[in-house]
Every structure is written in C-alpha cells, then in structure tokens.
Amino acid sequence: MLRASVVAVLAFGLAAHAQPQKVKAPEGWKEVRSEAKDFAVLLPEESDESRVEEKEQVSRGLTATKGDARFTVKVFTERKGGRQKEDYLKVVPNDIDVVKGSIKKVKLGTMDGLEYQKKEADKTVSTYRVYRSKDGATMVTLIVFNSDKLKADEKAAFLDSFRITEPKQ
C-alpha cells in the first residue's frame, strides 16, 4: 500500500511537468495510457507495457511497431544516486553516433530536453527525444527506431503527443 502511495505521489508530482498538446492521430492510431494512467501517447496498433525496478531507478514503458518502425516510451522515476546525477542532455552532443546538425532543444512542461537523430549499429536512423527534470529524479525517453521509414506526420504524432496525466487512484 505504501509503495502504491509513493508511486501515486511521484506520478502526481510529474503532472506538474505536463504540457497539454493537441495532436491529430494518424489513421489507425490511438491514445494509449500507461497502466498507472500517469502518462499517455499516440501509438499505432497494439502496445506492450513494461516495468523494471532497479536499485537506483524505476522505469515503465510502452512499445509498439508499425512496419519496420518501432516506438518506445520510457519514464524513469525514483532516480537516485548515480542515476539521478546522470545527465544525458550533456552527453548527447558528444555522442559520435548522433547525426551532426540534428540536435534541437525541446521542453515538456518544466523539463528540458533534446531531440536528435542517431545512427544505430545496424546502420538505420532513429529519432530520440529525451527530457530530464532539473533535479534528475525523473527522465523521459521517446525513441522512434527506423524513423526514416515513416511519414513525417506519424513520427511527429508520436513525439508530440506524449504527456503526463493524472494517475489512477
């Protein structure tokens, strides 16, 4: 019971970061909410949800596919220790696999973030959007693997539709 309360409080705290966005869903897409109802995103087809508890963080995510493209959302909470100190926003510009000139600043409420393209090991190109709370306790990643195989409006629908929502009680 205490664990559920802690998660609800953390998720409710995330709602302060929410920025409502109106995004038109491409045909065949729908809004999917996490099991805890604390985040939502537009996705094609059916999605799979995951939850992983580690020593220094908890991650929850959704994954869906469309053709050769894969969409992944991960929300990292309860980050502490080394995980809380990690700042991907500072690491990304120095990553040799990031496509030059592709980095742009983005925001999700009060969380700063970056959007960029990255060449994967299999030579495909993926689009990443990473947000981090100022204290590092929360991080959100949205990834479109094989993003070059999608229409621009599909990629934008996924990336722009993500939002933090009120958790279920």
Any descriptors?
4 helices, alpha+beta, 39% strand, 20% helix, Protein Transport Mog1p, Chain A, three-stranded antiparallel β-sheet, 169 residues
Summary?
20% of the residues lie in helices and 39% in strands. Residues 1-20 have low confidence and may be disordered.
Task: Tell me what you see in this structure.
With 169 residues, the protein is of the alpha+beta class. It has one domain: 3-Layer(aba) Sandwich (Protein Transport Mog1p, Chain A), CATH 3.40.1000. Helix content is 20%, strand content 39%. It contains four helices and ten strands. The protein has a seven-stranded antiparallel β-sheet with strand order 3-4-5-9-8-7-6, with helices on one face. Strand 7 (111-119) and strand 8 form a beta hairpin. The longest helix has 14 residues, at 2-15. It is globular. It starts with a helix and ends in a 5-residue tail after the last strand. Residues 1-20 have low confidence and may be disordered.
* Number of helical segments with 4 or more residues: 4
Radius of gyration: 16 Å
DSSP helix fraction: 10-25%
Flag low-confidence runs. 1-20
Overall average residue pLDDT = 83
Biggest sheet descriptor: 7 strands, antiparallel
Structural class computed from helices and strand pairing: alpha+beta
What sequence of helices (H) and strands (E) makes up the elements?
Answer: HEEEEEHHEEEEHE
- What count of structural domains? 1
Task: Give the neighbour order of strands across the main sheet.
Answer: 3-4-5-9-8-7-6
Overall spatial form: globular
Record field, number of beta strands: 10
Please give the CATH class.
Alpha Beta
CATH architect. name: 3-Layer(aba) Sandwich
